[in-house]
UniProtKB/TrEMBL annotation:
<protein>
    <recommendedName>
        <fullName>FAD-dependent urate hydroxylase</fullName>
        <ecNumber>1.14.13.113</ecNumber>
    </recommendedName>
</protein>
<comment type="pathway">
    <text>Purine metabolism; urate degradation.</text>
</comment>
<dbReference type="GO" id="GO:0071949">
    <property type="term" value="F:FAD binding"/>
</dbReference>
<keyword id="KW-0503">Monooxygenase</keyword>
<feature type="domain" description="FAD-binding">
    <location>
        <begin position="2"/>
        <end position="340"/>
    </location>
</feature>
<keyword id="KW-0560">Oxidoreductase</keyword>
<keyword id="KW-0274">FAD</keyword>
<dbReference type="InterPro" id="IPR036188">
    <property type="entry name" value="FAD/NAD-bd_sf"/>
</dbReference>
<keyword id="KW-0659">Purine metabolism</keyword>
<dbReference type="GO" id="GO:0019628">
    <property type="term" value="P:urate catabolic process"/>
</dbReference>
<dbReference type="InterPro" id="IPR002938">
    <property type="entry name" value="FAD-bd"/>
</dbReference>
<dbReference type="Pfam" id="PF01494">
    <property type="entry name" value="FAD_binding_3"/>
</dbReference>
<dbReference type="GO" id="GO:0004846">
    <property type="term" value="F:urate oxidase activity"/>
</dbReference>
<keyword id="KW-0520">NAD</keyword>
<keyword id="KW-0285">Flavoprotein</keyword>
<dbReference type="GO" id="GO:0102099">
    <property type="term" value="F:FAD-dependent urate hydroxylase activity"/>
</dbReference>
<dbReference type="InterPro" id="IPR047712">
    <property type="entry name" value="HpxO"/>
</dbReference>
Length: 385
């Protein structure tokens, strides 16, 4: 059986690796001519790491991951610790460490594992239609291909989703802008083996350790959509938005390499439950585009990939039967993750000031159990439980 995957992001590559291991003929088409990951890093919680472990990538993903032993929230203005605790109880319960990883390094590792010879860059899909037992795909350069199954891993702006649903679902602005990147790790900014988040006024500054002595950082600021995006103004803008914040935040801003800093307006898409049409199926952001507020976007894409591959491998009543089983397994869980992230987004970014201030008060009383319970609730129910 020949399978075509549209999109060489995390979802498409993970699916491609899984399907190749089961013996399928797989090619990936990617519209960009050069792979440039969106975002500097990604949080791989144990459910996502287990998917990569299952595919034989245990040592490789561990080598990319940062040592994250503790979690802390800090008052962004005054610099005092609101709560801090060990993540070891969560790690023990989940059976796997979380790994913050560089997105570019993760994507490069996945591309190497899948095989560059079967990845075609600069190939923008412009049309698809189903004829009897095959899907016909056309590309912007006039070329064509056909497959028994087409997997749409083409992200939040997915053309495949438009085909499956019969309409283009609009994206929803989540209300905040995110700046992110990588910097050299320093104890002067945050403890090296800790996920540290500075909070105040509905804003966040967060640091996670990744490999090779680096921090992944992000700044969140509630702002109107559509403001000017000029890299040369990033430091000036961040200094303005975080004026009066504690010295650690000011030091981080000073250390930014603006040419390697990303700025993203955060969106999601209203959840839907239809993931396939005939022998065309959606995975990753094409199926459930979410905000990054609970760190599950990439992990859910990996769950999609592993379960889809397994559904095709172990069921023998045809492709559409396997796709139906994949849809029934994944759509409600993915919907729940989108809505949980949306709820966390609103609390964190002060959609209602009273609710956010109450959350800050709760953090000062938190011993770790409630936060870890919330993270574990996102992890459990994954395809490898």
């Amino acid at each position: 059986m020949k399978i075509v995957i549209i999109g060489a992001g995390i979802a498409g590559l993970t699916a491609g690796i899984a399907l190749k291991k089961f013996g399928y003929q797989v090619v990936i088409y990617e519209q960009v001519k050069e792979i440039r990951p969106v975002g500097a890093a990604i949080s791989l919680w144990p459910n996502g790491v287990k998917c990569l472990n299952y595919l034989g990538l245990k040592d490789k993903v561990a080598a990319l991951g940062g040592q994250m032993d503790h979690l802390s929230y800090v008052d962004g203005i005054h610099g005092d610790v609101m709560t801090a605790f060990s993540l070891m109880p969560l790690i023990q319960d989940a059976g796997q460490r979380p790994y913050p990883v560089s997105r570019a390094e993760l994507q490069s590792m996945l591309m190497d594992e899948f095989g560059h010879e079967d990845i075609y860059l600069g190939m923008k899909m412009t049309g698809l239609n189903q004829k009897e037992d095959s899907v016909h795909i056309t590309f912007e350069d006039g070329s064509e291909d056909r497959a028994n199954l087409l997997i749409g891993a083409d992200g939040t702006h997915s053309m495949t989703r438009r085909y499956v649903l019969g309409e283009q679902v609009p994206r929803r602005y989540a209300g905040y802008v995110n700046w992110n990147g990588l910097v050299k790790a320093s104890e002067e900014i945050a403890p090296l083996a800790q996920w540290t988040t500075y909070v105040a006024d509905g804003k966040r500054v967060s640091l996670m350790p990744v490999s090779e002595g680096r921090f992944y950082f992000f700044f969140d600021v509630p702002l109107p959509v559509g403001l000017e995006n000029n890299k040369q103004n990033y430091k000036f803008d961040l200094k303005s938005y975080f004026e009066g914040w504690c010295p650690q935040v000011q030091m981080l801003i000073e250390q930014l390499d603006i040419e390697r800093t990303n700025r993203v307006e955060i969106h999601d898409i209203e959840p839907f439950l239809k993931f396939y049409k005939g022998t065309v199926v959606l995975i990753g952001d094409a199926a459930h585009s979410t905000t990054p507020d609970i760190g599950q976007g990439g992990c859910q894409a990996m769950e999609d990939a592993v379960y889809l591959a397994r559904a095709l491998q172990v069921n023998s009543l045809g492709i559409e039967d396997a796709l139906s089983r994949y849809q029934d397994k994944r759509n409600e869980r993915a919907k729940e993750m989108v809505l949980r992230a949306r709820k966390r987004c609103d609390i964190t970014h002060m959609k209602d000031a009273c609710i956010t201030e109450a959350w800050y008060g709760e953090l000062r009383k938190e011993k770790g159990e409630n936060i870890m319970k919330g993270i574990l609730n996102n992890i459990v129910g994954n395809v490898l439980d």
